[in-house]
Specification:
single chain, alpha+beta, five-stranded antiparallel β-sheet, two-stranded parallel sheet, 7 strands, extended
Length: about 325
């Protein structure tokens, strides 16, 4: 039976070397975090297979220096070393100290790494963080030529956004001067854009701030990407959650139908615009040897039916 180790060792590596003349190191482990660490064990052209047993994983992980963990750089390493933490095993032994000094998310990361835990799921649809295009050319200070290059790059970025069905809210322009000095400018908008016209409008404005100058490279990038499908769901959710004052106007004819309640046999009609003036107070009529009425009756002989009267009739 051919194992994954046999396939990678004698199949994938030999094929890559024969075609590309490049070496390849491979790591095989129960999750992605461990596999990435294992890929660095037998470089430049070897492989390392970590077993699935818990004791094997703990023994392998806790003997590693903390710098071997993806996510711990030079600065974080210096901070942990100052706390007496040099290996992954020390992360677990000093977990109480870490809980007092670091944020919850960082503590979870440290303990997960110390126990050899990690995700083994691979997402097929990965949303990119940014899309960009750049062009290198002979140094020039011609504004029209530079703006034309910026427009071409904006069209290419827009095509990529539409192909990936995403849009962005941050536009960045990168330029390299003839002196090889690199400068970047960025601008964020309050909406998601994906069209070439909108991208060029903001990119050309940012480029104008770097002119006049002799440039040899221009790059246009759109970041803070969001899927257009998620954007449509967000817009619909915002519409549903709007306050009643922002909802479309309902005509009086429709409002009368809404206010009708056939189950109770009551029909309430809203007053017209002419009747929306302040109501005239009707004084109480007091007779001798009689108590004042609790509430004035409506003008005319029309009888007002209330919920109390309906319940009294049914009982």
């Amino acid at each position: 039976m051919l194992t994954p180790v046999f396939f990678f060792q004698f199949g994938a590596n030999s094929k890559k070397i024969s075609i590309t003349k490049l070496t390849c190191s491979i790591g095989i482990a129960p999750n992605k975090r461990l596999a990435k660490i294992c890929a660095n064990v037998n470089k430049p052209n070897g492989h390392f297979n970590l077993g699935k047993r818990r004791d094997e994983i703990i023994e392998f992980v806790q003997g590693l220096p903390i710098r071997k963990l993806s996510g711990i750089g030079k600065v974080r390493e210096q901070v942990l070393n100052a706390l007496g933490i040099a290996t992954v095993k020390d992360l677990y032994l000093k977990k109480c100290l870490l809980a007092k000094l670091f944020a919850e998310a960082e503590v979870i990361f440290f303990l997960s790494a110390a126990l050899g835990l990690g995700s083994s799921q691979h997402s097929e649809k990965h949303l990119r963080k940014s899309l960009s295009h750049q062009k290198t050319f002979a140094p020039t200070s011609d504004k029209d030529a530079l703006m034309k290059i910026c427009h071409v790059l904006s069209v290419k970025v827009a095509d990529d956004l539409q192909r990936h069905q995403v849009g962005g809210s941050t536009i960045t322009i990168a330029v390299k001067k003839s002196t090889f000095e690199v400068r970047t400018r960025a601008h964020s908008v309050k909406k998601i854009i994906s069209s070439a016209e909108e991208i060029y409008t903001h990119a050309s404005s940012l480029l104008s701030e770097e002119l006049p100058s002799e440039l040899r490279l221009i790059g246009v990038r759109v970041s803070s990407l969001m899927s257009t499908n998620d954007l449509n769901k967000t817009c619909f959710a915002n519409f549903v959650q709007r306050s009643p004052q922002s909802l479309p106007f309902i005509s009086p004819e429709k409002s009368e139908k809404i206010d009708s309640n056939p189950l109770l046999g009551l029909t309430h009609k809203r007053s017209s615009s002419a009747e929306k003036t302040s109501p005239t107070k009707i004084p109480r009529t007091v007779h001798k040897n009689k108590k004042a009425t609790g509430s004035p009756s409506m003008s005319g002989d029309k009888k007002v039916t209330t919920l109390h009267d309906l319940w009294a009739k049914q009982s």
